[in-house]
Design brief:
Layout lengths: L2 H8 L1 H18 L6 E2 L2 E2 L8 H10 L7 H14 L12 H9 L24 H21 L3 H10 L7 E2 L4 E2 L42 H7 L3 H13 L6 H7 L6 E2 L2 E2 L18 H15 L15 H11 L1 E2 L7 E4 L6 E5 L5 E7 L7 E7 L2 E2 L4 E3 H5 L2 E8 L9
Parallel strand pairs: 10-14
Antiparallel strand pairs: 1-2, 3-4, 5-6, 7-8, 8-13, 9-10, 11-12, 11-14
Helix pairs in contact: 1-2, 2-3, 3-4, 3-6, 4-6, 6-7
């Protein structure tokens, strides 16, 4: 969810070709691929974020493909292919349960798996699957809206709210439920779920999965009780200890690398999280966190990249963040601003224009934005639209060593 938006910005013609390849694969296989490889669709991880890639591309002006056909393949896949991670084929009893109850059920600790299609290592990932499916359904609702399919829009937008079924208001976490609708308790959000927490999450623990789905941050803030609580929870994410020695921690969470507290820089589900401080009205915290992460975990030495590159995901995070903005919700043609790493960056756009980002008085210590202008006019807030970039021009950040604490109020 970082690589595709970066390609949309830098190589839109190639993105058109890629989407047409996805559509061609869907014609041949009957399913819209979600994780295509040289040997076919791997159906890896969870969710079918092809919907997000297609929506994001369309809303950013990439139109060299048949959206109606893409939607038809996506709809069949999302409604009738199983949501089970790393499993290909028709929907299972777990998918039928999801359609009826609005969440993927988890097993209690020690309970034996009874659904034969569940991958023996990847497990059910019940919370992660639910959250990913909600985002996919939101993407589907937006494509349906573009195509004038009002009934489909209503159907998918309602399903996109299913994350509420797993939000535990007492703890402020997305919490697994069993097939009877009861919370699985007692529960440790740091370590429960087996290897990589895959019984309930995926490669990361419950702390990482608080900050989803990508389309519902305003609702998440509301469910947490407001921006102050949201801000405090973000602070706690970055300061909460591992809870075990790092050797014990990595023995069960080997993919959750690049840690800052419970935050995981080395795995894709975390990449948008530092930018969420903007939504809490604390952009100076986004600026602080992003600059620290770039300087700590992306260095030109043996440290290199802090986790599995996964085909360009972490590099895309670095490129976006070094430029000073990031696509928090692919599908919405806008970005959240951060703290640019370089004094000047030029993006040579496919339309022949150039978008320049300048950071005046930028340094290791001057990482905070005091003010900004876009094409000579005051740039207020933290939202940069894709169309503003495509129009070309210059975005100037005036940097300072002192945070503008009330900038988002």
């Amino acid at each position: 969810l970082a690589l595709h938006p970066l390609q949309v910005l830098l190589n839109p013609d190639r993105q058109d070709e890629k989407i047409n390849s996805y559509i061609r694969m869907a014609r041949q296989s009957g399913w819209m691929p979600t994780f295509p490889a040289i040997n076919g669709d791997m159906h890896a991880m969870n969710g079918n974020h092809s919907a997000a890639m297609i929506l994001d591309s369309w809303n950013k002006g990439i139109r060299g493909f048949d959206l109606e056909e893409a939607y038809r393949h996506l709809k069949k896949t999302i409604l009738y292919e199983t949501k089970l991670p790393w499993v290909k084929g028709d929907a299972t009893v777990l998918d039928e349960f999801y359609d009826k109850n609005g969440y993927f059920p988890g097993l209690r600790k020690g309970e034996t798996e009874t659904v034969p299609q569940v991958h023996s290592f990847e497990k059910r990932q019940s919370v992660a699957v639910t959250l990913a499916s909600c985002y996919d359904d939101w993407c589907m609702s937006q494509i349906a809206k573009i195509l004038g399919k009002n009934e489909d829009y209503e159907f998918f937008i309602k399903r996109s709210l299913n994350y509420r079924n797993l939000f535990n208001t007492e703890t402020g976490f997305y919490h697994p439920k069993d097939s009877e609708g009861k919370w699985i308790e007692p529960f440790d959000y740091r370590f429960d779920g087996g290897m990589g927490a895959r019984d309930y999450y995926d490669e990361n623990n419950g702390w990482t999965y608080i900050w989803q789905p990508y389309h519902a941050f305003d609702d998440l803030i509301s469910m947490m009780g407001g921006k102050e609580n949201f801000d405090r929870k973000l602070d706690q994410l970055f300061t909460e200890g591992l809870g075990r020695s790092k050797w014990q921690y990595y023995s069960t969470m080997p993919d959750a690398t690049g840690n800052v507290g419970q935050f995981v820089m080395g795995n894709e589900p975390s990449m948008h999280i530092p930018y969420l401080y903007n939504l809490a009205g604390k952009p100076w915290k986004t600026q602080k966190r992003v600059r620290m992460l770039l300087n700590t975990w992306f260095r030109n030495d043996l440290m290199g990249i802090p986790g599995d590159e996964d085909g360009g995901g972490l590099s895309a995070f670095y490129v976006f963040s070094a430029m000073g903005f990031y696509p928090v919700t692919p599908g919405i043609p806008e970005y959240q601003t951060g703290s640019p790493l370089f004094n000047q960056i030029r993006i040579h756009l496919s339309n022949g224009r150039t978008f320049t980002i300048r950071a005046e008085k930028n340094s290791e210590f001057n990482k905070y934005v005091r003010s900004a202008t876009l094409n000579g006019k005051p740039f207020e807030g933290t939202k940069l639209t894709h169309s503003e970039i495509l129009d070309g021009g210059t975005l100037v950040f005036r940097m300072d060593s002192r945070p503008l604490v009330n900038a988002g109020d």
